[in-house]
Amino acid sequence: MRIAFLTDQYVTEPRNKGGLAYYLYRVTGLLAKYGHTPEVFTISDKSGDLLDDNGIPVHRVFIDREKLSRRQSLARWRLNLCIQFAAYSMALRKSFMLRHQGEPFDIIQISNNMSTGLATSISKPVPVVERLSGFGYALSEAYACKPSLDQRLANYVDARGARFADAIYAPSELLANTFRERFGYETEVIRSPFVIEESNLDESVLKAKLEGRLFMLFYGSIGRLKGVDLITEALVKLLPQYNKMNFVFAGNDLGTPEGEPMRKWIDGKLATYKERIIHFEQIPHAQLYPIIKGARAVILPSRSENIANAMLESMAHGKVVVGTRGASFDEVIDDGINGLLIENGDVDSLAAQMEKAWTMEEAERVRMGEEAIKAIAPFAPDKAITDLLDLYARVIKKKGGAS
Predict the structure, then answer these.
(1) What was the pLDDT predicted at 123?
(2) Cα 333 from Cα 67, distance rounded (Å)
């Protein structure tokens, strides 16, 4: 089966390398392992390159940022996102069609992220499957900001554009139910394949910065969406009580809703305990995994999430994870059995569960970690890829093609 993935991000591109990029990296590699031929079409600042990423052809679809900026200026900068969405979608469709004419594809997978596959989904040169990566309306609420007209239109296109696909799936029940209930879309749940890559681990950062310290960990985007403000307020309550407690924040700083660097806000709130707060920028997995292993617990109080990769990685390492009810963590975590849950946006709830994770007896910590490892079995690559291939085959059959 020849499968095209149209995306605004992939691991080869430094500009935008989020969770979707790493999902595509994993899923394309697994599909190739199963004997299929995936190819990636990704937005890029590089002009027209074709890369070989571990055997996966990656078509770089060049976007002229100066030309895009001129188009946005014609609308007086009021529709930046919508113009960007349209430019990405049309450029990806053009690149795909050129390749498709020479070597036809059986199916396309797109994402609702940035509406990158919308133009292709509307024209449907071959069957189209859409993976839901998020829900823009929920993200606006989580960021505590009033969306502009541009953002509202972009959210609308992200959500409503899915109706043009031949099939829709989501990695979480939360997101699938949202689209079923709000838009009436038939949406399947297919878990994303999860693989721990532990070759060539590098303990240099752990030893240099954290050796001899007891600590809890947050890693991900440093911002309100991920609940970093809640962690900070919880630490105001906990650090005076536990003199040996240290906390690590690792990830890219997204800033506060007011535009201040989030790390600056954290340090201001916790100035009295600055020596016990450790900051890292985003670090490679080879250095991150030893830090996860060394943590007493991993704290992930996201306000909105779509099966957090950080949760899966931490549970796979046998760690106690503190996550949020109603943000897809509760699809994996059974409170008190294989992790701990808090109420969404509730500092007191978070502080109580962080304290529980910190003071937990070692035998209980080990038991909970063992249960955590068992809980992520549905994300095993073989099952996830089998489910995805089954969806592809059903869609192709329905549309009258051959796999």
Answers:
(1) 86
(2) 47
Range scoring the smallest mean pLDDT among 42-46, 73-77, 294-298, 363-367: 73-77
Rounded distance between C-alpha atoms, residue 349 and residue 84, angstroms = 40
- Helix, strand, or coil here: 244? coil
First-to-final CA distance of the chain = 5
Range of the domain at 115: 2-193+380-398
Contact 342, 349 (CB under 8 A): yes
285 neighbors 197 (Cβ within 8 angstroms): yes
Q: Could you read off the pLDDT of 217-263 as tens digits, one per residue?
A: 999 999 999 999 999 999 999 999 999 999 999 999 989 888 899 99
Query: Which residues are within 8 A (CB) of 15 and not within 5 positions of it... i.e. 6 or more apart?
Result: 9, 44, 45
Tell me 339's DSSP state.
B
294/367 Cα distance (integer angstroms): 17
Written as six digits, the tokens of 377 are 């079995």
In a domain, 199, yes or no: no
CATH of the domain at 328: 3.40.50.2000
Q: Which residue has the tokens 């498709």?
A: 100
One-letter amino acid for residue 28 of the chain? T
Helices 309-316 and 285-294, interaxial angle, to 10°?
60
